[in-house]
Structures are given as C-alpha cells and as structure tokens.
Amino acid sequence: MKQRLGRQTGLVLEGGGMRGVFTSGVLDAFMKHELWFPYVVAVSAGACNGLSYMSRQPRRARFSNIEMLRKYGYISLKNLLVQGSIFDPNILYERFPAEIVPFDYKTYAENPALYEMVTTNCLTGQAEYLSEKHDARRITAIAKASSSLPYVAQITNVDGIPMLDGGIIDSIPILRATSQGHAFNVVVMTRNKGYRSSEPDIALPSFIYADYPKLREALSHRVEVYNEQLELVERMERWGEILVIRPQHKMEVGRTCSDVAKLERLYEEGFRLGEQFCRTWVLVS
Predict the structure, then answer these.
(1) What does the alpha-carbon distance between residue 69 and residue 7 come to, in Å, rounded to a whole number?
(2) Poorest-confidence range of 159-163, 174-178, 201-205, 264-268?
(3) Against a cut of 0.90, is the pTM above it?
(4) Closest residue by Cα to residue 39 from 175, 180, 246
(5) DSSP bridge pairs for 161
C-alpha cells in the first residue's frame, strides 16, 4: 500500500544549470503518474523545468535540455560575447516557448496550483518570489531572470526591476514553502547527498556590478549561504519534515555541461527515481 502525503504538501525545485535535467526527469515521472502538487516553488533551471510541469507538457523540458542542445548547441562562449549570455537567450526564451515546442499558456493559466519562481533583486540583494499566470511576456521574463546566472548572463528586468538568478540568495527555497503554509514538502535536489561547495567566498571588487552594491554583497557570501541551506535540507530530512529526491550516482554534469550523453544519463536517473517515488507515495486529494 502506498504511503500518503497530505493535501497541502509542497514541491520545492532546486536549480543548478544543466544539472536541472535531473529535475526534468523527476517531473516527467510525476506527470506520467499524475502526481500534482498544490504549491510549487522553483529556482533557476528548476523554474524553467517547473513551467512545463505546471502546463502539464511531459518531455517538453527534456526536449529543451537535450534535443535542443544537440540541434542548436545553445551553450557557448560565443553567445556570451555576442548576446551577453552563455545560454542563447533567443533560442531558449523566444523561439522555444513560441515556436519550437509552444508553451501551453491556457493549461498553465487554468492550473489551480500556485507556482512561484525565485529571482534575486539586484537593488536590494534579496530574493523575490514571483508568480504570474496570464501575462506571457512576464512569465518569460521571470523565468529568464530566475535562470540568469551571475557573470555569464545579462541582468533581466521584471516589472522594471533588475533581476538575476534566484539561486544567489535562495538556491533551495524550502523556508519559502513552509512560510506559505506548506509544513511538509518534497524537495528535488540536483546534488548528491553530503555535497558541500568548497569554492571560496570572495569580496567582489567594486567594478563588478558597480551599480548594485547589495548584489555584490550577496554574491560575496553565496557559497556560505548555499552550504547552510544544504545543511538545513539534510537536517529536515533526518527529522522527517521533508522528503528529498536527489541524484544517487556521482554527479558528472556541471552548470554549463553540453555533453548530451551525460545529460541523457542524468535525465534517465531522475525519471527512474521519480517513478520510484510515485510507486511509494500518493498525494491525498
């Protein structure tokens, strides 16, 4: 007999650049088994993958992460030099939702679940949790901002406010989920259990993001904040306050990985673990 999740269980999606292909596999399994959460909060790559879950379009996120990468090669230093982003923004945020695999705005708008995407406000250096169901341009702008990695992507304006990747401040927005009334959550991670970043935090020189001192300050503590969040997730997992789905095999995909074979393996692992989860748990209707 399956174990039961409360009807107010939330879903939290970590980012991680191309590691997010793991999340797209998990979400495709959820859609196959019709596991629909009433609240989803997602950041960076998780926000982009979560859109296809909210519009109930299986394998759409997989297509963008794998088939489109194979066809268009949308990750390159040339993109960074010419367009200001290492990920081709024209392919990902204009052609993909409009013509390559059109986003189902109608189904998305009619989905009763609340969907929040996390961005970083460059002016305040704080996280913003943004939701939009009807304005197509704003939906795209929020997703783009949430996924705009610092240093290798342009700042994106949302509602006239400069925004960057939500993972700068809140890579794993579980506290946001609990603050919204979802005491129990399923968290999809893109790192192995026990991972901690060993990158050093450094104070950024004033000429980097010169107009945004609060952003510079936040970036100077990014690794420390992320490692604290990883500690929180594992502590909450031990206490039975959350369920975590994370890669089991050693991670071989980086943020800007363009190796399709590695991405396919990571997607398949996510799908397999997502199916395993659905065979064990059911959400109370």
Answers:
(1) 37
(2) 201-205
(3) yes
(4) 180
(5) 158
